[in-house]
UniProtKB/TrEMBL annotation:
GO terms for biological process: carbohydrate metabolic process. It comes from the Archaea. This is Uncharacterized protein.
Amino acid sequence: MPMISKKRFLLLALLVIIVTSLVAMREVHSEEEPVVSYLGPAKYYANYSSACIIRVDDFVADPAKLTTIDFNMGKRTVSFQNFQMELINYLVVHHPEARLVFGIITGDASGENNTQLWSLYSELVHKYGWEAASHTRYHLLPPRTADDIAGSIRDIEGNISNYRVNTYIPPYGKVDGNELNMLRKLGIKIVMSDKPLQLKVPSNWYDMHITIKIDGKHPWFMKFLEVTHYLNNRIGGVTVIYTHATSFDWKSPGQMDSYFNETLSNIEDGRTWITVPSELYKYSVESKMLKVVQLNETTFEVSLKKPVDFQPIPVTLKFLVDGSVKAVYFNGTSLPELDSFGYIPEVGYKQIGNSLLISVIPNGVLQILSGGND
C-alpha cells in the first residue's frame, strides 16, 4: 500500500480542519440567525388572495342645497339623508372593519350649513379608513366647469383636515377628454366609471370599471357576486361593488342593510382585502417600483426605484425563513408582531410556519433576528 507523503498528509489534515470549522460555524450561525430568502412583494397587502372595493355614490355635504338630482321634489332631501345616514350607522355599528369609497356631491355652500356632517365624514376617513371621493359640486352631465370639478375637490380637502382627494366619480359615469386633462392637473389618480367588468388590477386608473351593482330590484346579483368573488380569489383579481341611493326601496326599511350584510358575508372570507381605490393604486405602484437588496444573510435594504408623488403606504414583503423569528427591525426600530392583518395597511410582521410576511413603508434597512430553531 503506497505511503502518503508528509506534505500531502498535512494538506489533507488542513482541509479536514477547514471543513469541520465551516460546519461548526454553520451550526452556531443557525442557532443565532434564520436562513432567510426574499421571495418578493405580495400582490396585495398582507398577502390577501384578492381585493374588493365597495363604492357608494351620491353622499351629500348639504342635503338642503340639492337642486339637480332627479328625485321626487318633496322627498328628495329625506331620501338622501336616509340613504347615507342609515348606511353609515349600520356599517359603523355592525361592520366597523368594512370600508367604502363614497362620492360626495358638495353643493354650493359646502361646509357652511352642515359642519356636523363634514365632521362625520372626517371621522369615517381618519378613524375607519373610508375614502372620500369627489362626485362634483352640482351632479351635472358633461361638459362640466372648473367650478364644478375643482370646486368639489377644494370643498372636500377644505373640510376634511390632512386629507388629499385622489379619486373622482363622474356623475352618470360620463367624463370627456377636457375633464380628464383637468383632473390630471388637479392631482386626481383614479377615475371610476360605471362600465363593466372589472376583474383585475386596473391597467388604466383613469377608467376603473365596476364588477357588480348591489340592487334591491335585482336580487340575483348575489349569486353573480358569489361566482365572481370565487373566481377573483383564484386569479388574484379585483371586485368593485357599486351602489346608489336609487338602488333600494325606501318603503322597505332595512332592505339596504340586509343587502350590505349579505354582501359582506360573501366578501369577508379571510382571503379578501377590503380596500379603497387610492390605497389599491398606491400599493400597485409601490410594489412594481420596489427594490430590495440583500446586504447579508438577514439584512435587506428596501426602497423605491424612484420617488412617488403621493404619501407611500406599507407594502408587504414575503420571506421564507428556516427557524423562528424573534424580532424584526426596520431602520433600527422594532416592528410589532401582528396577531393578524386587518384591512387598513400597517407596519408589522407575522410568521406562519416558514412563511414570514413583513409590511413596511419602503425606505430603509430591514433586519430579521432569530429566536433559534424550534
